[in-house]
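Amino acid chain:
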Amino acid sequence: MTSEQMEIWHNPRCSKSRAAKQALDEAGVSYTERRYLEDAPSAAEIRAMLDRLGLEPWDITRTGEDVAKELGIAGWSRTPEDREHWIETLAHHPKLIQRPIVASSRGAVVARDDESLRSLL
């Protein structure tokens, strides 16, 4: 990723994700779009993105999704020992990944609001 290049983990069915993509378009920045539900990130890619975000996997997990309820994620513990289990679950169920995630040479954010996204522009 060059200093100008950004990447968005995008779900076109999500209004927040569409708004972030539109903001990138309006800002005229170059980016790659990863439709992460169709092109699911591997556990290694999720680990790398979490490092860039400075977050833990439970911080980017959509616990309200039906699959999260089926798996009982709300009751899972959140310790360093549990981290890999969470990451593997996100890799197998990408629908659980919070969206959109935008990454650039300046860092990465879960861009659910304009302010978060602007921090990368």
The mean pLDDT is 93. The CA atoms of residues 106 and 120 lie 6 Å apart. The first strand starts at residue 5 and ends at 10. The beta strands are 5-10, 30-35, 101-104, 107-110.
